[in-house]
Amino acid sequence: MVLNLSKLSVCKLGNLFQKQPSNIKENSFAALMVEPIFDYQFRLILIGDSTVGKSSLLKYFTDGKFFDISDPTVGVDFFARLIEVADGTRIKLQLWDTAGQERFRSITRSYYRNSVGALVVFDITNKKSLEHIPMWIMEAKRHIQPHQAVFVLVGTKIDIEDEREVKTEDAQTLADFYGIKYVETSALRGINVEEAFRIITQEIYDKVQSGEFKMADDWDGIKAGFARSHHGYSLVEAEPTKSGFCC
Ligand SMILES: Nc1nc2c(ncn2[C@@H]2O[C@H](COP(=O)(O)OP(=O)(O)O)[C@@H](O)[C@H]2O)c(=O)[nH]1
Ligand SMILES: [Mg+2]
User: Where are the domains of the chain?
Assistant: First the structure.
């Protein structure tokens, strides 16, 4: 049996199971040995204007809670969570947050280039944030190429409906123009947050299955995450930890 886990990766894997069924124990090597950890790792990013609610979406998705604090994160922040697609395949989502750079439109190429999916986020109570969506999509496509990625348009803060400035139909029209899906969410109320991540994950997985998206050695967008041999388990972190923090 080969277990190649750094202290930090054990910690990260523990976090992955936060929202899994109770029969899988957190940080339990026994659990690691009887269940495949993940079959693929997809790296996703969230883009959109500052304050639209990107970090809140991520925190709700990974912690199941809304944090009412404006978090001026410094540096690169990333989160992870395990999700199952329709056929039961386990996907580890590695989720990168722009950590404040979006205020200055200074997101670097490296933030985009290893991503296979982008949630393009605007605030339904802020029309300008929708008007900036074409810029965000253009910027992401420019940096992601030659690789391809799945985009999903996400409207946030539907719990404050009386402040709505963007009609659902208008956002849907924009999404249709780009040929992408649209979902309206509230991180405060926990509405459709899971759905948004599920939609993008399933779409990427379908493209992997059909052969449209392929893994590449020099690209971290999609990684195979787990290998099992007849002699035991070989557990390999899909990507070495570079930055960010966990626990
Ligand atoms: N009412 C409401 N406020 C939200 C929601 N999501 C985020 N916010 C608030 O919007 C502000 C910016 O959120 P944040 O996640 O930091 O946005 P980011 O800059 O895009 O990462 C904060 O004050 C959050 O509390 C939501 O679903 N509903
Ligand atoms: Mg943020």
Answer: 2-36+229-245, 40-224
